Amino acid sequence: MNIVRKISLLCMPWVLVACSTLPTRSPVEEVISPPTQGTQPKEEVPEAPVVKPQEPSVDSAAIAPPAVFSLLRRAELQEQNGDNRSAASSLERAIRMAPRYPGSYYRLGELRYREGAYRQAVSLAQKTLSLGAEGILRQQAQDLLKKARAH
């Protein structure tokens, strides 16, 4: 039995090598490599233009994943229970998940205003407006901005 184990351990690398595949040349290497003498040069493939990603428009920014709304609800419950620190943490996490969603900034601005951090509240209200808040949210952000600047 002991000899069978030794033989199988010695043969294992050979079995693994037999299962492997040989490397092949990719089409990109063929285009890049210079032609050898006596052969006709291949046609060069034009390089694709570099396209820079564009910033999403404000219209697409207002869409947030369901997890963000879950975090907003959690923050509301935490705030009702008097746990402002956890509520702020949940709102900051929602901002990290959807940085272009204006509702999260407004909610955090409201919380900062109630805590007495008026400069942060002003900054967050301005960010809400700059992200294209519309309707009631826009009006609420403008009201928050006025109240926070008054202090």
CATH superfamily of the domain at 61-150: Tetratricopeptide repeat domain
Structural class: mainly alpha
- The mean pLDDT is 78
Biggest β-sheet strands, sense, barrel? none
CATH third-tier fold name of the domain at 61-150? Serine Threonine Protein Phosphatase 5, Tetratricopeptide repeat
Element-level helix/strand string: HHHHHHHH
Low-confidence stretches: 26-33, 52-61
Radius of gyration: 30 Å
Helix content: 55-70%
How many runs of DSSP E, i.e. beta strands?
A: 0
Topology:
Elements: H1 2-19, H2 27-32, H3 58-61, H4 66-80, H5 84-97, H6 102-115, H7 118-130, H8 135-150
Structure description:
- There is one protein chain.
- With 151 residues, this protein is mostly helical.
- It has a domain of 90 residues: Alpha Horseshoe (Serine Threonine Protein Phosphatase 5, Tetratricopeptide repeat), CATH 1.25.40.
- It is elongated, with a radius of gyration of 30 Å.
